[in-house]
Design brief:
Layout (H helix, E strand, L loop, with lengths): L9 H10 L4 H5 L5 H5 L7 H11 L17 H4 L5 H5 L3 H21 L9 H4 L7 H8 L3 H6 L3 H14 L3 E5 L6 E6 L6 E5 L4 H16 L4 E4 L2 H6 L2 H18 L2 H7 L7 H11 L3 H10 L5 H11 L12 H9 L1 H12 L5 H8 L6 H10 L1
Parallel strand pairs: 1-3
Antiparallel strand pairs: 2-3, 2-4
Helix pairs in contact: 9-14, 11-12, 12-14, 16-17, 17-18, 20-21
């Protein structure tokens, strides 16, 4: 099969190339015959289609569709981010958005287009603003639960599991740009949150709920750190970002709980650090709470934020690629994909495509997922 020529719709190759931002000339530096493939003069092999899918950030299975899927252009999904700002994002961010869209396409295949959650959380707030306390209740996580988690990494996994049960899919990856913490892609059935694994676990948790705020307001979003980008956004977009920040902060640390904790102490950096440690939160988020309540000045908050937002040190360790993939995709997504394979809804090639790996890695991933 690998050397056989595949008679696919050439429009799919053109769609994948253009969506990835490649001109035909640029694409020819990687695929000598791509112009011939797009003009039906030649057909690519399966191996070549795998390479095309990898280069252009789409599942290889999409290249066998009868026609290009109805997937919006990435720049049009982020309504709070002007097109010029989206275009100026680092190439790695563009690639990650395409990867997230590819995972969303795979989710459609795995779920037959229906959210597997019994009560998807986005449906609960279709016609009204989300209340943080009500959202927390739907997720089924109390402050007492939050305090029992051993550390921020455990807390992230627990929140991720709760979001999955509520119908929100969370993926991770290394953004290679610490200025960007995550983004979300809105969909009525299969919403996705993508988190920068290089940020601290407490920052990743805040990103989960900043992006959930976007999704609950029926829009895709980007969670940036640099104030320069925020300052360039239109007033309406800055308002949305502030609203999502407030939503995340009030869900993770309800105002009534903050009042209780601060009843007998001053709003110092030390107090913020103590509360953050108790609830597995970002101390910057707690300190922002202090600022928003007028307990500290903008200057005090800005000074602490600058000192605390230090990019993480780069690790020289390569790690285990299969364990990393499990962390990035999440056990729920992997279980869905293997489940479809066991039910013969996916063949081995389709399973590998859904996971973005070569078929040879599937046995190790299966053992890691089910045997631990």
């Amino acid at each position: 099969m690998t050397s056989d020529r595949m008679a696919i719709n050439p429009e799919l190759i053109r769609w994948a190339r253009e969506r990835a931002g490649y001109s035909i000339e640029a694409a020819e530096t990687h695929f000598r015959d791509i112009a011939a493939w797009e003009s039906r003069q030649k057909n690519p092999t399966y191996v070549q289609l795998e390479q095309v899918a990898d280069r252009f950030g789409v599942p290889v299975s999409v290249l066998f569709f009868p026609a290009p899927p109805d997937v919006p252009e990435p720049s049009r999904m982020f309504r709070t981010l002007p097109e010029r700002e989206f275009a100026a994002l680092p190439p790695r961010m563009h690639l990650l958005v395409r990867k997230a869209q590819a995972l969303q396409v795979s989710l459609v295949e795995l779920t037959e287009g229906r959210n597997p959650a019994e009560q998807p959380i986005l449906q609960a707030f279709q016609d009204r603003d989300p209340d943080p306390e009500e959202v927390r209740a739907i997720l089924g996580v109390s402050l007492a639960d939050q305090r029992t988690w051993a550390d921020p990494a455990t807390a992230f996994r627990e929140w991720r599991d709760a979001l999955y049960e509520a119908g929100v899919f969370v993926f991770k990856d290394t953004f290679r740009h610490s200025d960007y913490c995550g983004f979300s892609i809105y969909d009525t059935e299969l919403p996705v949150i993508y988190v920068n694994s290089s940020r601290s676990a407490t920052r990743q948790i805040f990103t989960l709920f900043h992006e959930l705020g976007h999704l609950l307001h029926e829009t895709s979003g980007l969670d940036p750190v640099p104030t320069g980008l925020m300052d360039r956004l239109p007033t309406s977009s800055r308002r949305v970002e502030r609203r999502c920040n407030h939503f995340a902060a009030n869900l993770l640390l309800p105002p009534s709980e903050l009042d209780r904790l601060m009843a007998h102490q001053e709003p110092t950096e030390s107090a913020a650090t103590q509360i953050a440690g108790d609830l597995n939160l970002s101390r910057e988020m707690v300190y922002r709470h202090f600022r928003d309540l007028g307990w500290i000045t903008d200057e005090e908050y800005a000074d602490a934020r600058e000192r605390w937002n230090v990019p993480p040190a780069k690790s020289g360790a390569g790690g285990n690629s299969n364990r990393t993939l499990v962390t990035y995709l999440g056990t729920q997504y992997l279980d869905m994909a293997f489940g479809a394979y066991y039910r013969n809804r996916l063949d081995e090639s389709g399973l590998a495509d859904a996971l973005g790996v070569k078929p040879a890695r599937l046995p190790k991933l299966e053992r890691l997922l089910y045997a631990g």
